[in-house]
Amino acid sequence: MRSELQPRKKLKAEVQIWLENVERVNVEVQDLDDRIGESSALTRGFHTEDVSKSIKEVEELITQQGRFHGGLVVDNPQWIGQVLSTTNISGEAVKACVEEIWQCLMDDGVKKIGVWGMGGVGKTSIMKFINNQLLKERGKFDTVIWITVSNETSIAKLQKDVASKIGVEFSGDEDETTRAGMLFENLSQKGRFVMILDDLWAKVSLERIGIPELSNGGKLVLTTRKDDVCRQMGCREIKVKPLMEEEAWKLFLEKAGCDNLNIQGVEPIARSIAKRCAGLPLGIITLASCMKGIYDISEWRNALKELRLRKKSVNGFEDEVFEQLQFSYDRLKNPKLQDCFLSCALYPEDWKIEERSLIQLWIAEGLVEEMDSMRAEFDNGRAIMNRLISNCLLEVFTEEEHARTVKMHDLLRDMALRIAKSRFFVKAGTMLEKAPDVQEWSMNLEKVSLMRNRRLYIPLEMSPP
């Protein structure tokens, strides 16, 4: 019976009745056995009639079992879910993340799960994998609802999306409260459901949408780039981290193919290209796919050079990846907050930036609101820093009691430099010995960074155009 009871299936009515009778007779037989055991040798004969009755019922149930023609189950019209296309899960850290999410789903004590991490790190791919596994799970959940949340999603849009997944039809005349009531009634009847909200950007009210209290086996899983969304929604937080360097290289090999990497001199170039993806599966898969089937080493050298120069000609790689990454930047909305982020690109690649020094730079440039004390301005700068970290635009590298350093992912730095292309001129940490030609400077230039070039000599008479 267990082998037949798969998702999308339920027991036939006659099978369910038979099982209930089996359970009833089993209890009666156990009760009879207890009563016989407590009887004396003289009174045990009084139970003969009850024993005969129980034997007859058991024989009848055994006989009935053979009458279930055409199997024990039928299609379950209440079962809801959709298998989603996805890619293979790569990396030990990612697999551990998947396992942690799964354990939370199986734990009745965890109602809400928040999966967060920077854009392109693989949150959606992980949850697609989880979605498909849930559809294979036997009997744990009857309904799996996947909702893709856009950045401008409203309560009305979410209600419409949920309704389309669970078969609720709105006439178009209902107000928000009525729609919520219709969804609430339908979902309450389903009991064991998992709702996945992919790419959530801000806290939403489950009550306003119509999602019932998750007390009867229901679960909510959301993905977001902001850990404070997880906290505000009361979720168990699970962070998806970028791939380690060797894991990233393994994924690059898988997508690019190994044949072309056997060419002498290609592998070190390919490793440099893979490293620039900063462990982001989206970047690795996209760029490796672009380089698949390339056997000319000059094309590999050119691709690496173009990436370093942040040109767009590598088969649209930057456009696809940066579209994901820049979304977090755009959502900051406040121009001063955006400039605080962009200023981090003035430091050399992979540079560990001291938080205090960075905040002092922001204050000096007027990016932090002027207040009545230096302490208040620093606290405001610290709040900005936390906002950038929360949005996965910066990551904490080291943290001590009174100090911490932060770091910017390579792809995020490339994105920032691309955004500020006409405003920034950055050659930090590039081993320059000669000052850049002023013809390289744009007319709208605001900031120049030549730091960490130990042998660089800058003439006193040099000035921007």
Automatic annotation (TrEMBL):
Keywords: ATP-binding, Leucine-rich repeat, Nucleotide-binding, Plant defense, Repeat
Domain named Disease resistance protein winged helix: residues: 346-416
Repeat keyword on record: yes
GO terms for MF: ADP binding; ATP binding
UniProt keyword Transcription regulation, yes or no: no
Coiled coil feature spans: none
InterPro entries: Apaf_helical (IPR042197), NB-ARC (IPR002182), P-loop_NTPase (IPR027417), Plant_NBS-LRR (IPR050905), WH-like_DNA-bd_sf (IPR036388), WHD_DRP (IPR058922)
All residue ranges annotated as the NB-ARC domain in the record: 96-257
One Pfam family here: WHD_DRP
GO biological process: defense response
Name of the protein described by the UniProt record: Nbs-lrr resistance protein
UniProt source species: Hibiscus syriacus
